[in-house]
Amino acid sequence: MTPRRRRMVAVIGGLVCLAAAAALVLTAFEQNMLYFYTPTQIASGEAPEGRRLRVGGLVERGSVRRLSGALEVRFDVTDLDRSVTVAYAGVLPDLFREGQGVVAHGWLGADGLFEADEVLARHDENYMPPEVAEMLEEKGHPPDASLR
Predict the structure, then answer these.
(1) What DSSP designation does 92 have?
(2) Chain-wide mean pLDDT for the chain?
(3) What is the DSSP annotation of 26-88?
(4) Smallest Cα–Cα separation from 83: which of 129, 139, 127?
(5) How many structural domains is the chain composed of?
(6) Which long-range contacts (CB under 8 A, 24 or more apart) does 86-93 make?
(7) 146 pLDDT more than 50
(8) Following CA atoms 122, 127, 130, 135 in sequence, which dihedral angle do they give, to the nearest 10 degrees?
(9) The domain spanning residue 76 has which CATH number?
């Protein structure tokens, strides 16, 4: 084999290895992405079942239900159009309350129940997660300082 041919084989082999590494990185990145869905998108079937995702909106007033003797709590998250029930087993953030914006991370079950493993609430009175604020503004929620 001539030196030129050896170089060509080495360059082609390097490009194949680089392409394989890029494909692995992109696959891992896609599997770890958390897509944000609104309750309306979940109700219309746009959200995949069994895949990790985020749902956000306002905690519906009167929807928080705690199971006696357990840390599990269920509540409804609304985008002022549709609602989705969220089940969470754990300690809720201190700022969690009805009428406040939340984002829950977890999985959507076949029964339509969202099983959350993390619930994020507004961190002060002047903040709401950007996705939730945009979604509420699109739904006609009056824009004010508490949405930013």
Answers:
(1) P
(2) 84
(3) HHHHHHH--EEE-HHHHHTT-SPTTSEEEEEEEEPTT--EEPTTSSEEEEEEE-SS-EEEEEE
(4) 139
(5) 2
(6) 86/55, 86/113, 86/114, 86/116, 86/119, 87/113, 87/114, 87/115, 87/116, 88/116, 88/117, 88/119, 90/117, 90/119, 92/119, 92/121, 93/119, 93/120, 93/121
(7) no
(8) 80
(9) 2.40.50.140
Q: Are residues 92 and 141 in the same domain?
A: yes
Nearest to 101 by CA among 133, 64, 76: 133
Task: For 95-117, write each residue's pLDDT tens digit.
Answer: 898 888 899 999 998 888 999 99
Per-residue pLDDT tens for 17-76? 999 999 888 877 666 667 889 999 998 888 887 788 999 889 999 999 998 888 899 999
Please report the pLDDT score of residue 148 as a whole number.
Answer: 39
